[in-house]
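Recap quiz, item 2
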Amino acid sequence: MNAHGNEIAEVARVAADLTERPVAELERGILEHAEATAIVNALEGIRVRKGLRQKDVAERMKVSESTVSRFEDSRDEDLRVGDLVKYAGAVGMKLTLFMEDPSLPAAEQIKHCVFIISDLLQKLTDLAKKHHDDPAIVNGINAFRSEVLFNFFTQYLKSEERVRTVFTNSPQGTEPLRQEAATV
Amino acid sequence: MWTFDGQYAQKSRFKQCGKRHGVELNACLKNLGRLVEALNGGLTLQQCCAFGFFRSEGKDVYRIAQTGVRSAHETRLYVYARITGSTICILTVGDKNTQQDDIRWCHSTADEIRRTDHECARK
């Protein structure tokens, strides 16, 4: 469960005791609401993390502060693409449409993400080539690539530990894991 | 890591709100989850005040509003941020009509929690 899911589960647990309603029912209600406002909440989260006030975004969008407040109080289905693009631009982000096919198995989704990451890393390489005579940029890109590799391996190893538990407990034991290791 | 504590909450209020304004309460609870996620992500309480739904009412008492609810009955969830222990103490839930009384009660409860914490620290 991701971090967001953990917080919701914990809130639902405490609220269930207070409201005397079933935990599962509360968690479902809170999650449904979170899904209905996921995009808006993500954008507001970016604004806050960047230290921007609603007033700052309003100035950049050339709208009133109450317009920004209403935007952040919306449900995703009420958003207009034009407003999304303007808000994203106002918080220094570029809006990219990424559509997810929830019917695809996790393995296919991972492959898709790998290709996206590969394209983005290529962009970094192109940037480094373009600024090959600027050591600050080249060194910065190198350092970032090392950071990406470190973060990826850290997460991958954590995932492998969890998978190892499944394989160890399965009837086939760790044989599938040994075979997988042999192919790397 | 910030966590939640419901032991000081006005249960009757939550029970009533859950029945009458369940959608709004769920929205407030979702925002409470977002708040704690942001705190655990490294933001301070002051930085979190930039969220539209989160506002200080003084004495480390904060108000969390609902968002994303059409034709909402304005609902306010009040919490006390217990810095020692990184705990969000859930206090009460109300609306515009009960706002002044709610804030007064929350301030008084926050004072009591602080007094208890101080006495425990002295022992």
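Strands of chain B lie at 3-5, 54-56, 61-65, 75-82, 87-95.
The longest strand of chain B covers residues 87-95.
End of item.
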